[in-house]
């Protein structure tokens, strides 16, 4: 039952945000802020999939390498990657070189390249719960790992051919992209942005 903790600047923050300066910046400036746009959401979806089984700080610190390796996560560009690109990715020390996750990223880009502009954004945001029905979490124990909405989003993405999009990954995406606000009730970032 960990509540918000006072950071070095005297402000209360979600406890997970205080272990590194990278986390503080990510927590304060990005996490939980609304993200729109197919390419931007594709990036977040991919990074959440790569994070599966790892610490988020590992992904956050390698994000510049991921962006370079995956052409800025522009869906059309990644969808056109060749077998040579795949081999390059598997050898790239700037990213997580997990074959299944790399293959899923490439496959997902190919699926999404056939969607109309705005379809990914619309689909993801259609699963945002009503904020009025979600009380602000007081402690980390109040923050779920999976919700009915993330399960429904996961099922819909899988039904449309996407991979590595389980309910936990879908919920992490929802948190990171502002579909839900899981900053703790007394956290300085809860109502900023």
Estimated structural class: mainly alpha
In the predicted model, the low-confidence regions spanning at least 5 consecutive residues are: none
Q: What gap, in angstroms, lies between the N and C termini? A: 26 Å
Tell me, what's the shape?
A: globular
* Widest beta sheet: strand line-up: 1-2
Task: Write the H/E string, N to C.
Answer: EEHHHHHHHHH
Number of strands: 2
Mean pLDDT metric: 95
Tell me about the largest β-sheet: 2 strands, antiparallel
**How many H/I helices?**
9
Radius of gyration: 17 Å
- Please indicate the percent range of residues in DSSP E strands (runs of 2 or more): under 5%
Helix content: 40-55%
Task: Tell me what you see in this structure.
A two-stranded antiparallel sheet has the order 1-2. The chain has nine helices and two strands. The relative contact order is 0.19. With 193 residues, the chain is mostly helical. Helix 2 (38-51) packs across helix 3 (56-69) and helix 2 crosses helix 9 (167-176). The radius of gyration is 17 Å and the shape is globular. Strand 1 and strand 2 (12-13) form a beta hairpin. The longest helix is centred in the first third of the chain and has 14 residues, at 38-51.
